[in-house]
UniProtKB/TrEMBL annotation:
GO terms for cellular component: chloroplast membrane. This is phytol kinase. It is a multi-pass membrane protein. Its main location: plastid. One of its GO terms (molecular function) is phytol kinase activity. PANTHER family: DOLICHOL KINASE (PTHR32523:SF8), PHYTOL KINASE 1, CHLOROPLASTIC (PTHR32523). Signal peptide: none annotated. It is an enzyme of class 2 (transferase). Keywords: Chloroplast, Kinase, Membrane, Plastid, Transferase, Transit peptide, Transmembrane, Transmembrane helix. Pathway: Cofactor biosynthesis; tocopherol biosynthesis. It catalyses: phytol + CTP = phytyl phosphate + CDP + H(+). The keyword DNA-binding does not apply.
Amino acid sequence: MTLLSSLLFPFPAVHRRSPATSTTTNHFPWNKPRKPDDTVTFSYSTLEQRRVRLDERFVTRSIVPANAQDLIHNVGATVGVLGGAYALVFTFDDLTRRNILDQGLSRKLVHILSGLLFLVSWPIFSTSSEARYFAAFVPLVNFLRLLVNGLSLVSDQGLIKSVTRKGDPKELLRGPLYYVGILMLCAVVFWRESPIGVVSLAMMCGGDGVADIIGRRYGSIKIPYNQKKSWAGSIAMFIFGFLVSIGMLYYYSALGHVEFNWESILPRVAFVSIVATVVESLPTTEVIDDNISVPLVTMAVTFFILNH
C-alpha cells in the first residue's frame, strides 16, 4: 500500500520524507540505502547478540527477527490505542450518567475527540506497511460493537446514551457506524504518507463536530437554503476545520512523515475547508449522512487540489 500511495499521490505541494528512525528491514522504500563503503559485520556472543558495524559505529541488538519486533510493536500500540478509546467513551458516559454533561454535548465531544486522538495515534505504530492494518483494527472493534448494539443483539446503555441523539439503538447503524467506517478507510487507504486522510478526518471530526456545538448554542440566524443549519455553525466549521487540518498536517510534518511547502498548502487547505463547509450546510442529511458526505467530498477535493 505504501508503494501504491506514492504512485497515486504525487503532489507538488507535498514531499514525502522518511521517518528519522526505523527498525524495519531493507525492503521498505523509506529506508536509507547503504553507501558502497558501508560495512555490516556479525558476531554472535553467548547472549545471542550481534554487533552491526554501520558508518564506523557499532550497535548491539538482540537477535529477535525484525518481523517479530514489528509485530510486538504494533500489537502493543493497538492495545494501547484501543484501551484509550474505551477510556474516552467510558469517561463521557460517566459524565453523562452523573448529569455533569448534557447527552448531546457528550456525544459531540466523543465525535470530535475519538477521531482526532485516533489520528494522533498513527505515529505510535511501526514504519512497516502492515502497521496501518493494526491501527484500523481499533475502529473495526468499535464498528462491530456498534453493529451488535444497533441490531439489539446486545444492549450497552452507556454506549447508546453517549453516542445516539434520542437513545434509539438503531441510530448506531447510521452516523456512528459511518463515522468509524471512515476512520478505517482513511487508515488503510491513506495512512501517514498522504495528507488526504489527515485533512478528511480533521474536517469530519474537528470541523463538523464543532459546527454542531456552536450551531446549537449560537445558531439563531439560519442559512436561507437550510433552516436546520446556521451561519454560526458553518463559520465555526470553516474556522475549526481549517485550523485542525493545519495543526494535524504540522504534527505529521514535525514527525517527518511528510514535508510541505506551507505557502502553497495553506490556501489549498482553506479552499478544501470552504467546500467541506458548503457540503455540510446543504439540506441533504436525510439522504446522505454528514459523516459520509463531508469526508468523501473532502477526499476528492483534497486529491484534486493538491495534485494540481
